[in-house]
Structures are given as C-alpha cells and as structure tokens.
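A student in our group prepared the protein record below, which I am reviewing. Here is the record exactly as it was handed to me.
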Amino acid sequence: MNREENEPVILYDGVCNLCNASVRFILKYEKNPRYRFAPLQGGFASKVRHEYALPEDADSVVLIENNQIFTASTAALRIAKQLKVPWSWLIIFEVLPVSFRDAVYHWIARNRYRWFGKKDYCEVPLPEVAHRFLS
C-alpha cells in the first residue's frame, strides 16, 4: 500500500512478539487513527532506509513524522503522546536525558526475543486494520 506524504509511519520489527503486541496496543489506544505501520523486514522499510540514510541493521522502532525520523525512546514517547489517557501521560519521561531513556530502551530491545519470543515470519494484520499497514 502507498501512503500519503503527511501520514506518520511506524517501522517496527515484524518478527518480534513484543513489537507486534505494541502495534496492536497502539491500534487499540490511539486517540485518532493516524499511524500507518510497516515491518522493518519489508520493502517499504528498505526504501525508507535508503531515503533517510538509516543503517541496514537498525532494529529500533522508527517513527517517520513530518518528513523527520525519530528512533528509540524518542519515537516511543512521541507515539505514546498520541495515545488515550492514561497512556499519553508517558510523555512525562521526555524530561529524562535522551541518553538514559535510550539506554533503557536498548536494554529492553536487546532482550526482547529472549523475554517475549520471536516469530519466523512477519505477522499478518487483521483484515479490519490491514489498510493501515504498508508492505
């Protein structure tokens, strides 16, 4: 699927159980349906990596919003800000230094497969939200 230039897109690890659960969480709790989603393993993410000079081995969540790239904890907090209360209150952690936030984020990211598991393939979205996903 194509996206409109002004639509924010979340790139996520499509084989990670935690990441897939996070996408389902966002779909359930976002204030307004605004995000599109694309797995890091897909063609859209490859195109974005080239366009924005992201490293091939980038495995952080990536938020593309207003032609800007946000990664790791900054991406997660910007996404949380668009969720319903009380989840939007997570934005309070934005006051913490980025280095500290990202250290916590990367610690969880390094252990996500061990703690939450991994699939052999990208999860297929439910039909009612399939239009929100980019391949």
